[in-house]
């Protein structure tokens, strides 16, 4: 949310309109410019906002007027209850991590990095170039722009050890962000009513997608060191599952990264069971002390289906991700994405490709690492000093989040409310558990705005824990 001068004018005019009779004429733009000491552009923007809200109306050549208030008639949508029936299973609502917070709140709850951490100059220049290119008016092929497919394939190819075949560009399907890819994968590789193994805790958006598709989640306990392979082996054997959704690199929320030995064990188990590993490499660009090491690079047998998003590292406005799958799975996945959306905007793909192929992109990713290091350390230090009861099991080696365990008797919802009342937005850990939470956790994101306020935020959290 912003507090621009146009917002200020909107607020003042709304107050004025509230006491004005219907049909009253608003002062001229010139007098509003003088009254609010704002530019004509800003005043026009505020008027457009109020017109959009249906509060005033413009009569060209005559002026701007307060609209007649229509009496609100309560709608009765009750008939829809019978028409829709009950959903086959309860669909969880989107996590509180997605909520917008006012400017003056210290936002540790969100999952998306602040603008400061984005390659803003590169993104703006790419949009300008793409606006002049054919990509702005052409339809993209269904699987994506061939050059962008090649870029995703080459990136994974660089990590591929000798002895394994690197992926081909034709193995890549471009998606409008990885969230929609998760739904596609759960539909095509698992299917409604069938089991999907998932780390616990894991990404809430994956659980949301699973609930929408109707797959049955089978939680596998996991943490900063990844899952116990014996648990995984047992779950595959008991449930007959065909897929395991996991984040081996800088998991959201725990920040954990699997060791190479665990990665090999898991790959072996997946192969033995004729199953898929759905590898969500969401934090590929957010290594801090460690580099990402995708498991997909060590599988050329089609067992690993790999998703790698650019949304968080290029720009949340450039929703583009690459999915790499081999064999018939790739064809089914492509058929599903076509049924859902036909193709991804070629203009957005071209912007993403422009950004990641600039030499400055690599420089940006390196400087991002330095910034994430200092933000992470600042928040870890502040939490240890001011909120020692929030136990940070492991300092994350990558990703954007701290995962802190609270005393077992913590009333999480009260804690979140108390912190918010003191101007600090935090995310209760419950949303990241596919079944009952096994402890009380907080997820604290260190990539939001204003890291200078982390100390203050930790003080507020510490005091709120004390007050429980
Ligand atoms: C683990 C994980 N996967 C996928 C996503 C969704 O990414 P996208 O923005 O590309 O849809 C997120 C976003 O928070 C995430 O944390």
Please characterize this protein's 3D structure.
- The protein contains 15 helices and 15 strands.
- With 468 residues, it is of the alpha/beta class.
- The chain folds into three domains: 62 residues, Orthogonal Bundle (Arc Repressor Mutant, subunit A), CATH 1.10.10.10; 121 residues, Aspartate Aminotransferase, domain 1 (Alpha-Beta Complex); 222 residues, Type I PLP-dependent aspartate aminotransferase-like (Major domain) (Aspartate Aminotransferase, domain 2, 3-Layer(aba) Sandwich).
- The strands form four sheets. It has a seven-stranded mixed beta sheet with strand order 4-10-9-8-7-5-6, with helices on both faces.
- Strand 7, helix 10 and strand 8 form a beta-alpha-beta unit.
- Helix 7 crosses helix 11.
- The two termini are 31 Å apart.
- The model has no long low-confidence stretch (mean pLDDT 94).
- Bound molecules: pyridoxal-5'-phosphate (PLP).
- Pyridoxal-5'-phosphate binds next to helix 7.
Explain the layout of strands and helices.
Elements: H1 5-19, H2 29-36, H3 40-52, E1 56-59, E2 63-66, H4 78-84, E3 106-107, H5 120-131, H6 146-158, E4 172-175, H7 178-190, E5 195-200, H8 204-213, E6 216-221, H9 229-239, E7 243-246, H10 260-272, E8 276-280, E9 304-309, E10 321-324, H11 328-341, H12 346-356, H13 359-386, E11 391-392, E12 401-406, H14 412-421, E13 424-425, E14 427-428, E15 440-445, H15 454-466
Parallel strand pairs: 3-13, 5-6, 5-7, 7-8, 8-9
Antiparallel strand pairs: 1-2, 4-10, 9-10, 11-12, 12-15, 14-15
Bound molecules: pyridoxal-5'-phosphate (PLP).
């Amino acid at each position: 949310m912003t507090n621009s001068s146009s917002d200020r004018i909107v607020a003042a005019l709304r107050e004025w309109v509230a006491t004005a009779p219907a049909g009253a004429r608003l002062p001229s733009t010139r007098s509003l410019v003088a009254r609010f000491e704002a530019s004509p552009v800003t005043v026009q923007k505020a008027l457009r906002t109020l017109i959009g809200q249906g509060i005033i109306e413009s009569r060209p050549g005559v002026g701007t007027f307060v609209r007649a208030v229509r009496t609100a008639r309560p709608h009765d949508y009750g008939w829809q209850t019978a028409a829709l029936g009950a959903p086959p299973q309860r669909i969880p609502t989107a996590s509180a991590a997605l909520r917008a917070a006012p400017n003056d709140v210290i936002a540790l709850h969100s999952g998306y990095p602040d603008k400061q951490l984005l390659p803003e100059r590169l993104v703006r220049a790419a949009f300008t170039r793409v606006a002049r290119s054919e990509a702005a008016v052409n339809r993209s092929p269904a699987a994506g722009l061939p050059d962008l497919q090649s870029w995703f394939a080459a990136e994974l190819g660089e990590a591929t050890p000798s002895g394994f075949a690197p992926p081909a560009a034709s193995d890549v399907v471009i998606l409008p962000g990885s969230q929609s890819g998760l739904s596609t994968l759960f539909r095509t590789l698992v299917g409604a009513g069938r089991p999907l193994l998932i780390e616990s805790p894991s990404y809430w958006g994956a659980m949301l997608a699973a609930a929408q598709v109707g797959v049955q989640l089978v939680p596998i306990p996991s943490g900063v060191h990844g899952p116990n392979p014996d648990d995984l082996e047992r779950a595959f054997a008991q449930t007959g599952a065909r897929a395991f959704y996991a984040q081996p690199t800088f998991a959201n929320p725990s920040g954990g990264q699997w060791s190479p030995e665990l990665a090999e064990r898991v790959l072996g188990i997946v192969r033995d069971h004729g199953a898929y590993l759905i590898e969500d490499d969401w934090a590929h660009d957010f290594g801090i002390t460690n580099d990402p090491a995708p498991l997909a690079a060590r599988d050329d047998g089609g067992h690993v289906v790999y998703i790698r998003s650019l949304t968080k590292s290029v720009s949340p406005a450039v929703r583009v991700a690459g999915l790499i799958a081999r064999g018939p799975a790739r064809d089914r996945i492509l058929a599903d994405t076509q049924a859902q959306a036909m193709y991804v905007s070629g203009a957005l793909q071209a912007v993403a490709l422009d950004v990641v192929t600039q030499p400055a992109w690599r420089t940006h990713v390196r400087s991002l690492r330095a910034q994430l290091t200092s933000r992470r350390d600042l928040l870890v230090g502040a939490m240890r000093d001011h909120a020692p009861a929030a136990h940070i099991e492991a300092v994350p080696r990558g990703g954007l989040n701290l995962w802190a365990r609270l005393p077992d008797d913590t009333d999480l919802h009260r804690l979140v409310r108390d912190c918010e009342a003191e101007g600090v937005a935090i995310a209760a850990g419950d949303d990241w558990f596919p079944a009952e939470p096994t402890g009380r956790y907080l997820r604290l994101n260190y990539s939001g705005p204003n890291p200078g306020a982390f100390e203050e935020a930790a003080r507020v959290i510490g005091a709120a824990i004390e007050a429980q």
